[in-house]
Design brief:
This protein is of the alpha+beta class. The chain has twelve helices and 17 strands. The strands form five sheets. The protein has an eight-stranded antiparallel sheet with strand order 3-2-1-16-15-14-13-12. Helix 1 runs antiparallel to helix 12 and helix 2 crosses helix 6. The longest helix has 16 residues.
């Protein structure tokens, strides 16, 4: 098991200790005010952990505090890991970014695109473009999520039992077959819509590698990087370190809720959101990306591949607000593009919170987030375990307080 450890005085790496103290005060207040059960925040500069703080409880009822080796459900922070696995296979020559998904997953041949109507009255037409691996990595595939309530295709996902993205009683292969039988929201490559694309990418990794996704990630990423606790389930030995998952009602009150089925290997291995990890684990993963594919003598990706992964792939340098499907055209997506599995800042002047141009990262539905800022040589990770009634409100303040601490 791995504890994340403080490694350097903040001032030595250009971080203001007083600003970091304000960061701690802010999150300690959220815990004291019962708006968050507990959390961990870590800020690293030049590859060394300069600030590491824990607040509150991993399990409030049991009185168990957040510790530096606490295990967290990272949900969608799984997506960058699955994306790295796919890019490693790409480097090995198994496929190209613009190869059709159907070459490896035949169920996705001859997709149909939504035309009009709803429910049994839905009309579709044949897609004019093939769905490619690049479309999966960039969430421009035309796939969607069943829990959205903004488009008739979202409702078709729910009708197919996909509100939680997994077809009941199936594994990753079976669920992807269900996805493939539903219409696309739009022509592949013409809009950005955050979706089940990374589950399909995870299935692609399985087919190409000949291994189950959890086995492949363990052999190719977790063990080489020393991500000692990362995985899709927890052992009896690990179970006591797993943070309780809380839900938030419309009035902000927290109560424990059911999370991922982590005791025992899950049948459905979600490349989109199935992982658990510690701060130590994700620090190792972030450092590999910050160092452009290598860590402690272990190289997973070529520098050029990481550069490609963390560049904006939306056409014409567009951001998600302008290129997004109607659901995603909110102000929060202004200035943010998308790479191959990660969000990328393309215009920091119009983002809703302080951001460095070229900074990349992603978040999870239970309140976890990370980003790497290459220009500032900065990495940040934050963990809590709250599925909110709305969107997470602590992200902008986290970014503001961290950026206030950067002195050079």
């Amino acid at each position: 098991m791995g504890h994340l450890r403080h490694e350097v005085d903040p001032a030595e790496v250009g971080l203001d200790p007083k600003a970091l103290a304000r960061l701690d005060q802010h999150f300690a207040h959220l815990v004291d005010d019962h708006r968050m059960p507990g959390c961990l925040v870590a800020v690293s500069r030049h590859g060394r952990v300069a600030h590491l703080a824990t607040h509150g409880w991993r399990d409030r009822a049991a009185g168990l505090p957040v510790e530096t080796d606490t295990l967290w459900r990272i949900y969608s922070m799984t997506k960058p890991v699955t994306s790295v696995a796919a890019l490693m296979l790409l480097e090995e020559g198994h496929f190209g970014l613009d190869d059709p998904v159907a070459r490896f997953l035949p169920a996705f041949a001859a997709p149909r695109v939504y035309l009009d109507g709803s429910g049994t009255g839905t009309r579709t037409r044949p897609a004019e473009r093939e769905m490619t691996i690049r479309h999966l990595l960039t969430h421009t595939s035309g796939l969607t999520f069943g829990f959205y309530h903004s488009h008739p295709v979202d409702a078709l996902y729910r009708d197919a039992g996909l509100e939680s993205s997994v077809a009941p009683g199936t594994d990753l292969a079976g669920t992807c077959e269900v996805y493939a039988g539903l219409p696309l929201q739009f022509e592949p490559g013409t809009e950005w819509n955050y979706s089940v694309s990374t589950n399909v990418l995870g299935r692609l990794v399985e087919v190409v590698s000949g291994q189950d996704l959890d086995v492949h990630l363990a052999e190719r990423i977790f063990r080489p990087l020393g991500m000692t606790d990362a995985g899709f389930c927890v052992t009896e030995e690990q179970a006591g370190r797993l943070a309780e998952l809380y839900g938030e009602d419309s009035e902000g009150r927290l109560a424990p809720i059911t999370g991922l089925p982590l005791r025992g290997r899950p049948r459905f291995l979600s490349g989109s959101g199935g992982m658990v990890a510690t701060a130590h684990d994700y620090h190792r993963f972030m450092e590999m990306l910050r160092r452009r594919g290598e860590l402690d003598g272990v190289r997973l990706l070529k520098p050029e591949t990481v550069d490609t992964m963390t560049a904006n792939h939306l056409p014409g340098g567009a951001d998600r607000r302008t290129f997004g499907s109607p659901l995603h055209r909110e102000p929060g997506n202004a200035g943010l593009g998308f790479g191959l599995g990660v969000s990328v800042v393309v215009d920091p002047e119009i983002t809703r919170s302080p951001s460095g141009e070229g900074a990349f990262g992603w978040s999870g539905v239970a309140g976890t987030t990370f980003w790497v800022d290459p220009r500032r040589d900065l990495t940040v990770q934050f963990f809590t375990q709250v599925r909110p009634a709305g969107s997470h409100s602590h992200y902008p303040e986290l970014k503001r307080l961290v950026h206030e601490a950067v002195q050079d």
